[in-house]
Amino acid sequence: MTVSLDDLPLRDDLRGQQPYGAPQAPLPVALNVNENTHPIPDEVADDIADSVALALRDVNRYPDREFTALREGFADYLGHGIQPEQVWAANGSNEVLQHLLQAFAGPGRTAFGFAPTYSMYSLLTRGVGATYVSGERGPGFSLSLESAAEQVAAARADVVFLCAPNNPTGTPMENDVIEAVYEASEGIVIVDEAYREFAPRDVPSALQLLPGRPRLVVSRTMSKAFAFAGARVGYLAADPAVIDALRLVRLPYHLSALTQAAASAALRHADTMLGMVDEIVEQRDRISATLEALGYTVYPTWSNFVLFGGVDDTRATWQALYERGVLIRDIGIPGHLRVTAGTEEETSAFLDALAAIGR
User: Fold this and answer.
1) Inter-residue contact 168 to 306 (CB < 8 Å)
2) What is the number of other CB atoms lying within 10 angstroms of the CB of residue 45?
3) Which SS3 state, helix, strand or coil, does residue 221 take?
4) Residue 81 class from Cβ within 10 Å (0-12 exposed, 13-18 middle, 19+ buried)?
5) Of 124, 184, 222, 251, whose Cβ has the fewest other Cβ atoms within 10 Å?
6) What is the spatial distance between Cα 320 and Cα 339, in angstroms, rounded to a whole number?
7) Rg for the chain (alpha carbons), in Å?
8) How many angstroms separate the CA atoms of 146 and 338, rounded?
9) What SS3 state is found at 55?
10) Is the pLDDT score of 21 beyond 80?
């Protein structure tokens, strides 16, 4: 007998929901999930391999539950006076966010974000049995200080998500908006800086807002700038009391010894790993300029991707690119598509294919 999902005693609030599902396909040019498409440099890969091999010798033992060395590495990388006791890490930033929701959301509580934004916010919120509430953005997906504070105050959510810069739009977010949202909220305010390294270097990070704001959390990932998407390492900085709360919900020994060793080794080569960022930003800006010349609507972006509008038929355009070996993302905004900035060759392949297709 064949059993379907409807036949199982699934939670009522999960019925009819769709899982996260970015398309995966073995195409020559995959620019759809905002990965860093540059391979890890050989000298860094060798050090990571040696570190993992050393950790394997003790893999019969549980790993350091407090991932002490890794937290020290993250604190050193982040700067801003961040101490190791202010750092948390998990298997990708999604698990970091899940820990926060498990601790501060849950049944009878709400989380809030400004749509359109990262789709996992609502999925993770539902996963812990909480309610997700969407706010609104202004023209061009912008978010003004006054509007953001007003909406957050009205929502009275237990957790507020601020994606800075925003995914999937790339929209910049200045610290004055974050400050206003924090003052308007009584809950945990999570600033998701997954794409922070691609923002202008003269723009301050939300990390500088942490002192004196015990409900503020700044989340980051190694997946993007560090080209570590396959390793699954995310982290955050917050008041030590927040870290104590996360210990209540994490699984025992949730970060493997191999993950800790690999991430610590990568952090030792932060300068080399981040050397790819400038090239990615150059390709991102090249994409924006070319798309604009082709007549598309291009939005400001501080990330490693570009959202563009003015697409008459998103499905047909996506399919035509697919047939030419280029995979980008239809993120569900009518008339819009999103493309990741890859290597120079990958960027050229995308732009050439799009130009060949025409409007």
Assistant:
1) no
2) 14
3) strand
4) exposed
5) 251
6) 14
7) 21
8) 28
9) helix
10) no
Is the separation of the CB atoms in 346 and 29 below 8 Å?
A: yes
What is the identity of the amino acid at 318? W
Q: What's the number of CA atoms in the CB half-sphere (13 Å) around residue 20?
A: 12
Helix (H, G, I), strand (E, B) or coil at 27: coil
* Predicted structure pTM score: 0.96
Indicate if the alpha-carbon torsion angle 101, 104, 110, 113 is positive or negative. Answer: negative
d(CA 97, CA 106): 13
CA distance 238 to 34: 26
Q: Is the pLDDT of residue 150 over 80?
A: yes
Distances in whole angstroms, Cα of residue 296 to Cα of each of 140, 227, 338: 14, 29, 12
Give, to the nearest 10 degrees, the angle between helix 257-268 and helix 42-56. 150
d(C-alpha 54, C-alpha 28), whole Å = 35
Q: Which residues neighbour 245 within 8 Å (Cβ) at sequence distance 6 or greater?
A: 103, 104
Spatial separation of the C-alpha atoms in residues 303 and 198, rounded to whole Å: 5
Tokens of 336: 């819009």
Residue 303 DSSP one-character state: S
SS3 216: strand
Distance CA 85, CA 275 (A): 28
Are β-strands 87-90 and 326-327 bridged in parallel, bridged antiparallel, or unpaired? unpaired
Q: Cα(160)–Cα(309) distance, rounded to whole angstroms? A: 28
CA angle 29, 123, 259 (to 5 degrees): 65
Q: What is the pLDDT of residues 80-126, one digit of tens each?
A: 999 999 999 999 999 999 999 999 999 999 999 999 999 999 999 99
From residue 271, alpha-carbon distances to 92, 93, 186 in Å are 21, 21, 38
Helices (H), the chain: 42-56, 68-78, 93-104, 120-127, 145-155, 175-184, 240-247, 257-268, 270-273, 275-293, 314-323, 344-357
Q: Cβ atoms within 10 A of the Cβ of 317, count?
A: 18
With contact defined as beta carbons under 8 Å apart, do 121 and 93 qualify? no
